[in-house]
Design a protein that fits this description.
50% helix; alpha+beta; eight-stranded mixed barrel; 5 domains; Beta-Lactamase; 25 helices; elongated
């Protein structure tokens, strides 16, 4: 372990040297940056102080000039006694110790001027040389407010402020006071800012010094700075103060760099001392740490290797109460926690969070195992019926409870090796049974498990399911393809309302055909592939045909005549049902006029969908089409299914009422197969009920159907509605319906749906055709 200890110690030494070097470089960089910041701060502060002092002096002169201009005594003697005026001016000058005072009369002549002359021996006040001469800057006198200017006179520069002297609103002259810009002012700024200050003037192409705080021996340095040079070791700040006439006035402030950062230099030596001390102490600490770590480190390394290999069961023995001992203890805790979390994550990744059943991941793993062992098994793809309705009416919490209960029941069904929950209302069950009879018995067992109703508050919910089955390896030896086949079989049960479907190759053909139909239907209307077939409705009281139902057919160029059950759902799913209804209605209206021209007056029924009722433009299209064709509304019947009304009763009733007000005959189609209530039926503005064929076709054999149909007829009559029965396939049913008061009948026994040409021939063959009734509601 000596070798390890030395390595640790050397590592720490190198690490400390690197860290200290980085720290030293950082401190040095920081020192340089701090020096630059300190210099910049000092220069910015000096610049600000200079500007504030210069502006303050200007404002002071301006304020005093304004005050002096208001002096009544000045105004009294301004244009009379020049001697008295100079005395008065001198008195005002003394008040602010101004270096110059002057007055200018309204003609622009300097009427009085006093200058304060200073030398080493004495201070004298002398009359200015500009007295009685024209003022050099007449433009300054055109402004009515006090102003500050720079004024050059006799080689000296003054900070001058002029203010107009007014009597009433009349300006009778101007009075001005000025401070000389000289070395006294430069020294004052130096005392405040800490920087040497020199004033400079540019009256041509070169700057010249006019005053400086520097001593005589430094004047050559000042001259360099004024010319724009920056001497070594000096920090210089130049600033243009103002321009007047063709001249520029500025200031140069400078100082030795060392003087500005003197305080920072002292801090630098302190930092170097602390760095050296830290390095020594760190090396000592590194040696101690290296010596104390080597003892337990081997155990920790070994345990890390053990955990890395996936073994979480071996714990480290705690050898002492030191930090490393605590580390060993916490490592054991962490090892247990990691094992627990890993198990939880694995479980969560492979199980559904709602039912806790294995999910799709586990399903694929299990299928791969079965396929690897060349086992024979079946995949049952199960889908719960009407769970969406439960979620929509009772809430998703109730739907979730039902899914949990279904999962609990499915795992108890005998004959299945595994149950998987794919999410929502879909489950997968695996079984080793292959024969059709055994698969049917297993399906019956599933039904039995689910047939007990689910109680929720005051509701009893009966759940049903549909199942698609695919077998391995007879249907496919690829597990992904096998699942797809089971799903295809399940889809077939939904489409055809079956409970069970075992996969066959024909189902794939239907799927391919459906995809082709979806792709081709968008061109069916525009390419003229649609046509109407008509099925008559017989008036049972007279035995005469009075109504027709228009039924759309699609003559596909490849598949031939496509039944409506195959393409109308496609139109609804692809958003083309409105265009389809428009075409059917227009074609039916045109056919009415054609028949009317032949002396045949029949009421034609057209089916409309829930999407049509929700389309805000549908009513306008229907009414406009009637107006264009000059067809009365009562010559057409609009048939709407119960489900179309149930989706949105209020909106549907409002639209249907508009059609009724327009004169249309309205009929509830497929009555008895939807979920409408009697309360909704009472509110519907319809004229007739059309009993679904599922209750009519077995009237002769099924007493329950006879009871339902008889009750429906009585209910409709009591509500003032007529009744149409569809699905008439034999004479017994036709006579029974007539005996029980059904007004109209429709079905294959009377006539199949036929194209117009065949229907015209059929009509001509009917007895009593010449006495054909006018078809109305």
């Amino acid at each position: 372990m000596k070798s390890l200890q030395n390595k640790i110690f050397l590592f720490f030494v190198l690490l400390l040297l690197v860290v200290q070097s980085i720290g030293l470089w950082t401190v040095l960089s920081g020192k340089q940056s701090q020096e630059e910041q300190e210099i910049a701060h000092r220069l910015a502060t000096a610049k600000t102080i200079f500007s504030e002092l210069y502006d303050s002096r200007r404002d002071y002169l301006t304020a005093f000039a304004r005050t002096a201009a208001k002096d009544y005594g000045i105004k009294q003697i301004f244009n009379e006694d020049s001697r008295s005026l100079l005395v008065a001016l001198n008195n005002h000058r003394k008040r602010i110790d101004a270096d110059m005072v002057m007055t200018i009369n309204e003609r622009g002549i300097v009427s009085g001027q006093l200058l304060l002359l200073r030398d080493e021996a004495e201070v004298k006040v002398r009359k200015g040389a500009e007295t009685d001469s024209l003022f050099k800057y007449p433009l300054w006198l055109k402004k009515s407010q006090p102003q500050a200017h720079l004024y050059a006179l006799n080689g000296a520069l003054y900070q001058l402020s002029l203010s107009p002297i007014k009597v009433g609103v009349k300006v009778i002259g101007w009075i001005g006071f000025g401070f000389q810009i000289d070395s006294r002012l430069a020294k004052r700024y130096k005392m405040i800012t800490g920087l040497e200050t020199s004033f400079m003037l540019n009256q041509g192409q070169q700057w010249k010094m006019i005053a400086s705080s520097a001593e005589r021996q430094q004047l050559s340095l000042v001259e360099q700075i004024i010319k724009g040079e920056s001497p070594e070791h000096y920090i210089v700040q130049r600033q243009l103060i103002t321009e007047f006439g063709n001249a520029q006035f500025g200031v140069a402030m400078y100082a030795l760099r060392a003087d500005l950062v003197e305080v920072l230099q002292g801090r630098w030596w302190q930092i170097l001392f602390l760095i050296a001390l830290t390095l020594v102490l760190s090396l000592a600490g590194a040696y101690f740490i290296a010596a104390s770590i080597t003892k337990p480190i081997k155990l920790l390394v070994q345990q890390v290797k053990t955990v890395a290999s996936g073994d979480y069961n071996q714990a480290i023995k705690q050898f002492d109460e030191s930090e490393l001992g605590q580390l060993a203890k916490e490592f054991n805790v962490m090892q247990t926690a990691v094992l627990s979390r890993e198990q939880a994550m694995v479980h969560l990744a492979n199980h559904d969070p709602l039912t806790d059943l294995p999910n799709r991941n586990m399903l694929m793993t299990e299928l791969a195992k079965l396929a690897h062992h060349e086992s024979q098994f079946s995949v049952y793809h199960l889908n719960l019926s009407r769970l969406t309705e439960v979620n929509d009416t009772l809430g998703h919490d109730v739907g979730d409870k039902i899914i949990i209960e279904v999962a609990a029941r499915l795992v108890k069904v005998p004959g299945f090796a595994n149950v998987f929950h794919l999410g929502a209302d879909e489950f997968i069950l695996l079984s080793e049974v292959h024969r059709d009879i055994d698969q049917q018995s297993l399906t019956n067992a599933i039904e039995t498990a689910l047939e007990t109703s689910y109680e929720h508050r005051n509701f009893s919910l009966q759940m049903q399911c549909r199942i698609g089955i695919a077998n391995y390896p007879s249907h496919s030896d690829n597990v992904q393809r096998l699942l797809q086949m089971a799903d295809t079989a399940l889809h077939h049960t939904r489409k055809n309302r079956l409970q069970l479907q075992i996969y066959t190759a024909e189902l794939e053909t239907n799927t391919v055909e459906r995809l082709s139909l979806i792709n081709d239907f968008k061109n069916a209307v525009s390419d003229g592939q649609l046509e109407l077939h008509y099925q008559p409705k017989l008036d049972l009281s007279s035995g005469i045909v009075t109504h027709m139902e228009a039924l759309v057919r699609w003559r596909h160029p490849e598949f031939g005549l496509v039944p409506p059950d195959n393409f109308i759902p496609i139109a609804e799913q692809t958003g083309q049902i409105n265009a389809l209804t428009h075409w059917v209605f227009k074609a039916a209206v045109d056919q009415y006029n054609l028949w009317l021209g032949q002396g045949i007056d029949l009421n034609i029924a057209v089916n409309i969908s829930a999407q049509d009722l929700r389309n805000p433009e549908f009513f306008d299209y229907i009414s406009d089409t009637l107006k264009t064709a000059s067809v009365p509304a009562n010559k057409l019947t609009l048939e709407v299914t119960e489900s179309a009304v149930v989706d949105d009763p209020e909106a549907a009733i409002a639209v249907l009422q508009k059609f009724k007000d327009l004169g249309f005959c309205l009929s509830i189609d497929d009555y008895g197969t939807g979920y409408s209530s009697l309360a909704q039926l009472k509110q519907l503005p319809v004229h007739e009920l059309k009993i679904d064929k599922s209750f009519v076709q077995k009237l002769e054999m099924d007493n329950d159907d006879r009871i339902i149909v008889r009750s429906t007829i009585e209910l409709a009559h009591n509500m003032g509605l007529t009744v149409v029965a569809e699905g008439i396939e034999d004479e017994f049913v036709l006579n029974w319906l007539a005996e029980h008061g059904c007004e109209k009948a429709q079905g294959y026994f009377i006539s199949r749906p036929q194209p117009v040409a065949q229907m015209n021939k059929w009509l001509l063959q009917q007895k009593g055709f010449s006495n054909l009734k006018e078809g109305r509601c």
